[in-house]
User: Fold this.
Amino acid sequence: MSAVALRNMLNEMGLWQTTATVIYQDNQPAIRIAYNDGSLTQRSRTLDLQTLKIRQLIEHADVMLKYCKTKKMLVDVGTKVTPADQFKWMRDALSGYLIEVGNSIPEGANWTRH
Assistant:
């Protein structure tokens, strides 16, 4: 829930957010569970407290979950083993090198040029 902590800190500084904070997720079942108001299955009942919290944040428009392909999840660069070419692309995207040299941004990437 660090996104909520950052929202709270920005609010205390007078920087109010008018829209929900987007959280990118590569786990589609987790997104479906978070947005599903129905009951949880036996396999997902252990997620009750966490699920209820994220549902509450979604209902209050504090956060919004969006699907992002695993290959495009830049935050995974330091947590998952990736092929060399994918690692280099992620590294360059995080450092801003891709944008500086004018390389094309892959389709479905989560940012735009300014």
About this structure: The CA atoms of residues 13 and 33 lie 33 Å apart.
